[in-house]
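Consider this record:
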Amino acid sequence: QLQLVESGGGLVPPGGSLRLSCTASGSKLDEYYVGWFRQGPGKEREGVACTTSTDHRQYFRPTVEGRFSISRDGPRNSVDLVMNGLTPEDSAIYFCAVKGGLLPWQEAARCLVAVDPESDDDFDMDYWGIGTAVNVSS
């Protein structure tokens, strides 16, 4: 059974940076595509960033592209989300989630849908973490 634990959230002033980590146990993250999602107060959950399992392609929600980056750390069995230039609109609970057993083109297609603001994707992922809170405030 794969378990995911997010860490790195906290309070940061506008313009600040945070590094969130999604650390897995029970299985290797290399076998899954990994998504970062967030849910702000009174808002629906939305996809923020996604990375595929085989070629590590990266996909970002338009509002975070250029500010956020996502990277895999094999030895730590983790996927990090580095967030720069944070704004109050980025305040949310951030979740990581994974899904396995897909072909590369299927992973890419699902990542594109996950970060598309016009999508009403249900984020059909196999495993979810419990989230870490990010609060951007002065």
